[in-house]
Amino acid sequence: MVSGVMGVRTKTMLFIALVILCQFLFILPARPALNQPPPMADLGRYVYSRDTYWIVYDRTVQQLRNEGYDVAGEANWLLRVNYTRLDYTFTCKITRLSWPNVTIQIVEGSYDLNVTAHRIMDDGSVGERLGSFLKVKMPPYPHSWDSWDPNLGVGFNPSVLSVGNTFSHGLLTYVVNRTEVLAGTRWSQNNTCVLYGNFANSSHSYRWTIWCDTYSGIYLKQVVWSETPMFRSYEEHNIIETGVQRDRFVVYQEGKIHEVQVATNSTLSGFSFDSAARKISLSVEGTSGTLGSCNLTIPKSMVFSGFGFEVQVDGKKTDYVLNEDADSYFIFVTYLHSTHLLTVSFVSSPIWLQWWFWLIIVAVAASAGAAYILLKRKRSAIPTPQKPSKT
């Protein structure tokens, strides 16, 4: 009888354990391990944000004049200057991915800049407004930096998004404070984790609040406060859209923004542009033994006069097909699949292939020919002296 009761209890405990196990396996969301790329770690993953941003500096009248603003007052007067970006948007995108290292590129949109200056009085209070200025269509500026797990620039590894978890990245220490639904936004269907990040010492203070999608790690909203001896700032990102764009990449060269397009049947796992070396690099891979192909569309505005192309696969020169239209060059290259590094370098063409070289040759030849003919005519016009006759 006792053994029968023990058998029932054992079966009951096993049943309960099985139910609990099923709950974990089929109901609770699986999270990736810390050493595995999170779902949002894709080349071309981007977030497009609308940004509210202001920053306050203390400047002298002369310093503000040096920035190009015609402000009234004595040159040494101290001013409280507020710089506010209007209609400011930017895109944050992963342009190189070699897990766990990634390169993040920020490309700003053009925006208007409102600048307001108030005088700081001798007692430290803020006095009259001495000027207000508006600069329209400020030029966009892209910049890149390397990052690593868990912060990818467009989000966090979801494996760290557990309420109460604390982790560090760079200067900041983050704590996952709570979960929250972003009501009244296009993301209201998303459950988010709210992260607080902070750093402070005797002179610097940074405070971040970040709303991340719980299951993908993509951030949907950020609020940032900063304060140093030189400035105070406030910034709020509100995400307009997120997505993956693997076939178009924005590059920055000589103060200008260009777009390079990539069409390939390979898996593209990395894209970068070295403006100093004038070189595009792509990491591609595919099933061994199959034929891979890649077609790059490069704006002619990127290629300086007198430059051509050199294509390499894993550091070895390879043949390619070059076509062009009025605005772009099209470079087509094929290779047998495995994992490859493709590079397209902008190289100076040999001097004998330069149009201006042959123009100079023709001009010099024409000048030499004209000079020869002119000299010959002058010589033929001079009478030949005759010998005196013998008497």
* Average of the residue pLDDT scores: 82
List the secondary-structure elements in sequence, H or E: HEHEEEEEEEEEEEEEEEEEEEEEH
Radius of gyration: 33 Å
- Poorly predicted parts: 1-34, 351-356
Termini distance? 169 Å
Shape: flat
| Helix share, percent | 10-25%
Number of domains: 2
Number of contiguous helices: 3
Strand content: over 45%
- Biggest sheet statistics: 12 strands, antiparallel
What structural class should be given to the helix and strand makeup?
alpha+beta
Number of beta-strand segments = 22
Could you explain how this protein is built, in words?
There is one protein chain. The longest helix has 27 residues, at 355-381. The N and C termini lie far apart (169 Å). This protein folds into two domains: 45-244, no CATH class; 248-351, Immunoglobulin-like (Sandwich). Strand 9 (191-200) and strand 10 (205-213) form a beta hairpin. The chain is built from three helices and 22 strands. Strands 1, 2, 3, 4, 5, 6, 7, 8, 9, 10, 11 and 12 form a twelve-stranded antiparallel β-sheet that branches. A five-stranded antiparallel β-sheet has the order 13-14-17-21-20, with no helix packed on it. The protein has a five-stranded antiparallel β-sheet with strand order 15-16-22-18-19, with no helix packed on it. The protein has helices spanning 2-27, 61-66, 355-381, and strands at residues 45-60, 78-98, 101-108, 111-120, 126-138, 142-148, 166-169, 172-181, 191-200, 205-213, 219-227, 231-244, 248-253, 256-264, 267-274, 279-285, 291-299, 307-313, 316-317, 321-324, 328-336, 339-348. The radius of gyration is 33 Å and the shape is flat. Mean pLDDT is 82; it is low at 1-34 and 351-356. By secondary structure, the chain is of the alpha+beta class.
